[in-house]
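Protein Entry — a single chain follows
Fields — amino acid sequence, structure tokens
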Amino acid sequence: MAFMGIFALGLLAFLIMLGVPTLIGIVFLVVSLVQWIKQRKKEQKKKSKYIVPGIIGGVFMMPLIFVVVFMGYSMVSGAWTMHNSLAIQVQKGNYERVEALLQKGVSPDCTLESNEKAKDGERTVLSYLCECGGFWDDFEDPIDDVLTDEELAMMKLLIDYGADVNAVQYRHVREYESHCYRDANDPYAFRNTDECGYTPFLYAVDSGELAAVQLLVEHGADINTADFCGYTAIHRIADYPKDEQYADMLPYLIEQGADVYAVNNYGQDAGMLMDWREDEDTEQIRGILAKYYSANDWSFDLIEQ
């Protein structure tokens, strides 16, 4: 509420600062116009009296002119930027424009903020596309819940032009405290992943889009890649198991060579993560993992060591 009050006062002050000079300027311009009309009717040849009030009116109108020019420039500049932003055109699903920008040399590994290639740790457009499971709206939410052919084609377009399917994004370095294993007696020792070290592949797994996962794997995505907390795709599925999303994906990953027994930085494997979960709609996932882990004692021996 306080912020809204300050904003309202600021807006009022701006309108006053703009409105008062504009009103004065209009008055002087009207006076100048009236004097000019009178002079024209009388066909006077003496010094024109309308010039001075016209100049004064023009001076007082300068703030309004500046605001109008600035707003016009901003609108044109903004439209031009949007038209040439790869991330925005990907967001809008404009396949032809995206391809045109890529042909002009825009990096397929650019960020959401610019057309420059992402630096170490920065998230790429492909990563964001995989995270959202397709196109996203201005509020950074997926536009729909199902990956469409158009969205899959956009992913493939970026990959065909060289987008790195193993690009790593992170906020903290790998050695950051929360990424490391600590004493098992510490109740905070087992912490969830913070997505540092995520790749487009891990984002696609999180989104539950099998078609995107298959596309990335076919183009060289490391199926056993782990984030900075040691979480692989198998860990992610076991930690948030939903048959609706992963009943088909988990067997595919295993067939492609995913390590079912991989252990993360906290000493957890897929069996342990799954055993802690009591979510509904997980019977198929549990059935698949039960082939690799004891149904009664998954892997607590790792903690006891």
User: Anything to note?
Assistant: Residues 295-305 have pLDDT under 50 and may be disordered. The chain has two domains: 2-84, 165-304. The longest helix spans residues 2-42.
